[in-house]
Amino acid sequence: MFKKLTYIIVLSLLACAFAQTYDLPIMFIDTDHRCLNYDVIQKIPATIKLLDGKTNNVADSSKGTQYNIGIKVRGRTSAEYPKPNYTIEFHDATGKDTNVSLLGLPPSDDWVLHGPYVDKSMIRNSFGHWLFRQTGRYSPRTKFFDLYINGVYRGVYELTERIKRGKYRINVSELKETDAEGENLTGGYIWEFDRKFNRRGAGEVIDYTTRDFKTSDGHNVVLLYPRKKKITNEQKEYIQNYLSELDSLYKGDKSGSGYEKYVDIVSAADYLLHLELTNNMDPYLANNFFMYKSKDETDEQGNKTVGKINLGPPWDFEIILSNDYRPENYEINSDDSAFFATITNCYVEGWEINCVYKNTGLGGVQPIKWLLEMWKDSIFQIEMKKRWAELRSGVWHTKTMDTYLDSMKTSLTSAAERNFKRWPNLGKVSGAHDEDPFPMKYCNTIRTQWAGMAMGGFNADTWDGEFEHVRKKVKERIAWMDEQLGFTEPANPVVFEPIIHEPDWRAEMGDTSKAHIEASNLSRLSPTNYFVVIGKRLEIHTSVGGTFALVDLNGAVLYRTRIKTGVTTLAVPTNARNKHWIATLNGKMMNR
Description:
single chain, alpha+beta, seven-stranded mixed beta barrel
């Protein structure tokens, strides 16, 4: 009786604390008395409302526009956390998928609701994606909000875009069923290398071991675009053969010569540097490793552009930067302790890619040979060092990162206080064994399968301590990589951000109350701006125009001119031909 009374009192106190004006958007989901937990493995129907003003109050929940959605718990290990992730899918009145713009992001029919739990800084996911977008490449955009499900506060969540094809996501060509030969067959494709597992719920099993095909080296390929149900035999055979050709460069006595004809080297450098900077080992283990291939194209003058494999975007950052089961300050009690000890040492002393491949066999995983051999190639290492210098001189400069982290800290301070009243797990390891102190209504289940795999490697007693630990760890890793790659950071950043168009969707719509728009209304948005070096010639592609400049790594301007929209061709200036420079447009870094 006493325990029940205490629970009611505490719950009442929390209800009072949460019945306030919030500084983040609030999302309300109602499952209409249906179960929503780990055991529910198919999307269930629900409704959603969203308040997105400068300030928001729970009492105003009825004012939000209501949508029909399907929702389920997402993931495998993370699905067993008491604060899990969710996948939601928007439906129109007839039950068909429909695109909706949420929190100012480009419209989509499905989204991820990421619930940071073992990441007690709450920022690793957003920080990881931001770092990759700083290279000028797409990575899912994120927005923080407070979540209520069936009237119960669930804490601070993060709306995250799904990785999918689209003009303002992964911008590869649409593949039609009639595209069966020639250049039309060559792109675009989006796929994932992933180790899939079974997940059981309510007596039913989803076979996550299913893959669309295996590479010739035995790695699982899961097609994201076109999907398995829509891809034609010709298209599947094309991308399967393309990956087999890449694998074959390293079979037998072959040296891998010609890999650059298959893989975009700059994208590979950006992706691998990002993995190393964040200590994200999953893709090296053929898990959550996304790639895409654009289409071959020949212009009116007969110049051919070969569509190559681009690595990325990256995904899943909750255990990066010293936050997994290899932490510094608690013992690993496992038969695999020697393996994890080696990985821990690699965090301080070595490259993550080498650490993983020296300890192969985890879960039967074999190295992606072309990735490892490409990494070792001297020409690729030169490109890695060059790209590291470009990024670190500006968009990955420590002052640039500090500016971003400071802004995140300011925006999340109040939210973090709310979240950790709801989820009091500061100062201790966390995982699937944890109980929910205030269970969500309807069929809430506590899982214990992964009780021996608790996460959380630092476990500060305060959110500020967790947040600053992320800042500390990324700077430690940067300093080590600078030393390995022979780079010295300039006193100030040359550029703070790349040219990335994250439009103000409310301004684009012209009506803040109109949250649903069709893809045909997106034509005013600017596509990616980039440049290509062809010998001594610069080819600049832009839909913006303005002041184009070449700037060296200390900020000195080597060349400046005005350019118009479209394609501009210039000779590389003589004083820039033997120097390392960054191309900028209107003061922002252009991608290449």
